[in-house]
Design a protein that fits this description.
- With about 350 residues, the chain is of the alpha/beta class.
- It has one domain: Alpha-Beta Barrel (TIM Barrel), CATH 3.20.20.
- Helix content is about 30%, strand content about 10%.
- The chain has ten helices and ten strands.
- The chain has helices at about 5-15, 45-60, 90-100, 125, 155-170, 200-215, 225-230, 275-280, 290-305, 330; strands spanning about 35-40, 65, 105-110, 115, 120, 175-180, 220-225, 260, 285-290, 310-315.
- Strands 8-7-6-3-2-1-10-9 form an eight-stranded parallel sheet.
- It is globular and about 50 Å long.
- The chain starts with a helix and ends in a 20-residue tail after the last helix.
Length: about 350
């Protein structure tokens, strides 16, 4: 039997076996968000996650962010699917399995940045090179860490919103993570549309357009990475958290109901971006990775900051297989610390 058909059959069978239940919404007020971020880029990964969800729930996980990007069976734009992708049927099976384990499933689609990885260009700019922020020759170069799309490209935002609608339908989601991290090329002189414009204003405009569709029109929750929002004052701690540009003016102009996923992977005495974002009125979801002492330090400081901190997100970045994730030290050792209820105290943040 064809492998894909076999996997489809497994997912459909599991979907039928799971009891019917209402859509699982975000964790209740006062309940911490104990999250895990996973790459999900093919059928096999989705099937592994279906089997692993009960163990993740037992480990204390109640939110899973799945970075899908272009690895989905898009119906409105099938030309933008990756070669390997998750079928709509398997997406529905995964959604049912997540509800069964009391886990809130949030798909992620990288917006603006991360439109290439090394020499591999993602389907959107491969299909529409005219939408690149650094078009023509830049599309052939491999020394770009991560290509961006142009936020002013006509027709682009409508296409992206259509892709996210497909993802939300397939994964039965009521929240979307839009990425927006590591945006290094914006307001670039090579872009005929953005040349000479304020980069922070361009970034803000893109966020607002996405928010208008996701939150205003669809009534879903919107999440994004916070590294461009916190600005150079809180950046530059690692090679990925760079001082290359300053888009921090966006912190005063983007909607406050967007959850800011504030990631830091270096061990520090404290992490002042957490109270900075919280003081701006955002709900903050601190996100750690490796090494383990750095993740523990971030978690400790975040636990000390009560107001507007909703929990902790363990990012994995393929350092552990999905099936091993429940036993991975940053998940096993940190998430249980977040099982207590978090209530705002109004006290100043201090973790030294």
């Amino acid at each position: 039997m064809n492998t894909r058909r076999s996997l489809l059959g497994f997912g459909a069978a599991l979907l039928l076996l799971l009891p019917a239940c209402t859509t699982l919404r975000e964790p209740a007020p006062g309940e911490t968000w104990r999250g895990v971020h996973l790459w999900l880029d093919r059928e096999n990964s989705a099937q592994q996650l279906i089997r692993t969800l009960p163990a993740l729930a037992q480990a204390g996980v109640n939110v899973v962010v799945i970075e899908v990007n272009y690895s989905y069976e898009f119906r409105n734009h099938p030309e933008l699917r990756n070669r390997h992708y998750i079928t709509r049927q398997t997406a529905h099976a995964l959604a049912a399995a997540a509800r069964h384990s009391d886990i809130w499933l949030i798909p992620e689609f990288n917006c603006l940045g991360h439109q290439s990885f090394g020499g591999r260009i993602e389907p959107l700019l491969r299909t529409h090179p005219e939408w690149s922020e650094t078009p023509t020759t830049a599309m052939q170069e491999t020394n770009f860490y991560s290509l961006n799309w142009c936020p002013l490209a006509p027709g682009l935002t409508e296409t992206v919103c259509s892709l996210m609608d497909d993802l939300a339908e397939g994964f039965e989601a009521e929240a979307i993570h839009v990425g927006m991290d590591e945006v290094y090329y914006i307001g670039d002189d090579r872009c005929p549309r953005c040349r000479g414009k304020n980069p922070a204003a361009l970034f803000t405009e893109q966020v607002q357009q996405l928010h208008s569709h996701i939150v205003t029109d669809k009534k879903w929750q919107m999440l994004m990475w916070a590294d461009r929002v916190i600005g150079v004052k809180f950046q530059g701690w690692s090679k990925f958290d760079t001082l290359q540009n300053d888009l921090s003016a966006a912190a005063d102009t983007i909607p406050r109901d967007i959850i800011q996923c504030d990631w830091h992977y270096e061990k520090k005495v404290d992490y002042p971006s957490i109270p900075y974002l919280a003081g701006k009125g955002f709900r903050v979801w601190p996100a750690g990775f490796l090494p383990l002492p750095a993740a523990q330090a971030l978690s400790h400081c975040a636990l000390t900051q009560r107001t507007n901190v909703i929990g902790y997100l363990a990012t994995t970045w393929n350092e552990t297989r999905i099936t091993n994730a429940p036993a991975w030290p940053p998940i096993r050792e940190i998430l249980p610390q977040w099982k207590q209820q978090l209530e705002p105290t109004g006290k100043p943040w201090k973790c030294r």
